[in-house]
Amino acid sequence: MEILMTMIMKMRRMRIAMAMAAMLTEMAGEIM
Questions:
Q1: What is the distance between the alpha carbons of residues 13 and 29, in angstroms, rounded to a whole number?
Q2: pTM tops 0.70
Q3: Mean pLDDT of residues grouped by 10 in the chain (32 residues)?
């Protein structure tokens, strides 16, 4: 049960990190 929760948390964290990276790339593209 705990392992499943930690896996969900990791996935959520990864998804947030991916979204932030996408936003950064978009901002960089606008600047360039």
A1: 24
A2: no
A3: 89 94 92 76
Quickly tell me which residue has 């901002």 as its tokens. Answer: 27
Q: Two tokens at 32?
A: 């360039």
DSSP secondary structure, 1-32, as one string: -HHHHHHHHHHHHHHHHHHHHHHHHHHHHHH-
Q: What angle do CA 5, 11, 17 make, to 5 degrees?
A: 140
Q: Give the single-character DSSP code of 27.
A: H
**CA atoms of 25 and 32, how far apart (whole Å):** 10
